[in-house]
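Lecture 7 notes: from sequence to structure.
We start with the chain below.
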Amino acid sequence: MLNITLNRTFWPVGHGAFYTEEHMSHPSEKTFCAVYDCGGKSKIIVERQIDEFLAPDSSKKINYLFISHFHRDHINGVRYLLANANVEHIVIPQLENARLIEAYIYNAITGDNINDTQDDAQIFIRQQLATHDIPVEQIIEVEPANDDYSNPEQHINEHNTLESRRRNIEIKDNNGLPYWIYIPVNIDHDNQKRQRLIDQLNTICSANNIPHVVVGEKIQWSSIDTLLKTNMKDVKQTYKDIFKENHNAYSMPVYSGPVEGAVRCHYVDFCYNYMDWHPHHPRYWYTNRKLYKHVLKQMMSCLYMGDFEAKDPNNLNKLRIALKPYYYRTGMQQVPHHYSPNNHNTELYNDRIIAFGNIDYHKDVSFCYSVYDQIQRETCLPPIVITEEDAYQEFMIEFRITY
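Predicted structure tokens for the same chain:
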């Protein structure tokens, strides 16, 4: 028998994402740490939360850093995290020129000025990812799953290779047996749009005697920066025309939860640090008390979504198939894209207990209200909204496993 404590924390970075999970096995004190995304609109706020996360142990080791996609509000704290912690592995959607250029352009045109092409998010893309400044053994790329899932039952019968399309990460106990699993899923549906972006940027380059943004297989970063400095208006309009309302084509969800059938879990305790929670809160006792342990079992599993495009039912269907049966065991569910209606699908919250997500306190509240209201109607419980002005939301689950 082995005791495990899981500390899952939602850090208040405002409009962004920074989530951590720390496992501690007793009595061996063996630890495991995973981080999902590390960024926000305010780099200062993100770095402050990173410091708080690292404060108890200046030599903290992060076993896996999962990055959903390369937009500023999800990665502008990554370089600071890498500089101040020992990060063993970085799990990312598969690197492609079109993907890197789209993120770089988006970060630039949504920044405050042209100098934002040199901020931490852009340097991470340009110098560390694109030029492989990070050691290749540290990077784990997750291939896109681009199969046709329009007929899910037929797909499952004909193909039995879903495992090769994702990088499952199993966490093992002191006896070498897996008890926990992380499943990153890369569902990419707009690659053609990103290629169109490159073609249109090359057209602008030709009209202004600027070398193309991609020559052969190599990205010409100097050409992209020149375009942004001299033709920002045209670049913005081009991006807007191609991506219109939604620009999140490849955000990588990650499932975190107990391994199916590997262990039998007996739940010991559940703690929380959430100002509105108390033993009589409806979320805590929303089912009859006979199902109390079942509620805690669900809350062990979490589905991180980043800015996943959930509005398209085909994308959601792909995610269900890729995660089966884990998709249906998830109790904690991140609301995609900071409660944006453009990425929302209420089907995500069927049988969920907690929905959570980060927003900007001053700018996003009115924008996210319709989604907040839909989630509350769907689950009969209010989702957790995390802003930069909140204390961190910490969920500590202690459980005992037997074989």
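Points to note: DSSP finds twelve helices and 17 strands in the chain. The longest helix spans residues 191-207.
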